[in-house]
């Protein structure tokens, strides 16, 4: 039952005053529409845009603050994948056909357009499109190929929410079947499983991660709420069912495929390993000699080790 039509409600966060309420036009809301996530492009206040994903009737409703108007964009990449509709969370098996769900906006480019990263919930794939095409319905319709398939997260890796940290360029996203939150660095040209990192995974505390955001102080925030247990079973009121997680972004991505900091500790580890290998070789060749080795020997061993790692 729909009691109120979908609306955008916009507040001034400094005064808590309601600035505007925009009700989606009837022709942009379909019988099975459901708007579960929204991404805001607001680097230029007057030219702010909102992108609302319709998971029930696949589409994006784009809203312009300047025009106080909205339009509906459709594309087959918004649709659920029939091979990815089976879910299993905490012993509950169910089928969901949720369409476009995860939405994450990059920092703007030189022309002040962002990249929107998106995916249906019932899908293993990630997609992208420049907001240059979304800001005008005619342009979007005439440029079907502007929507790009980036790659796959792999089997059992359906994702609901996502968010891009615009400072590091890291895309964070949930993995609902795996009770985990993962990441991918958008500066990486290839969206492959080996380029994706796990931020956090826990069979008890991270059951159904339901929202992800990065604040203005570079902290990652994650909510989990055990929704499938509530829908298909019963919540145990003696357990903690709703959780809020937080960590600095740089700490969350540290030692993952999304790490942006120089890993000098890894280099030191290889150098020390090379020294130990050299000492072992010298000890075997000259058992009675000192284990002190010449620098050139260490460098040659390290060179061989690096060459081995590169292959």
UniProtKB/TrEMBL annotation:
Keywords: Secreted, Signal. The keyword Signal applies. It comes from the Eukaryota. GO terms for cellular component: extracellular region. It is found in: Secreted. Its main location: secreted. Belongs to the major royal jelly protein family. This is Yellow-f. It comes from Bombyx mandarina.
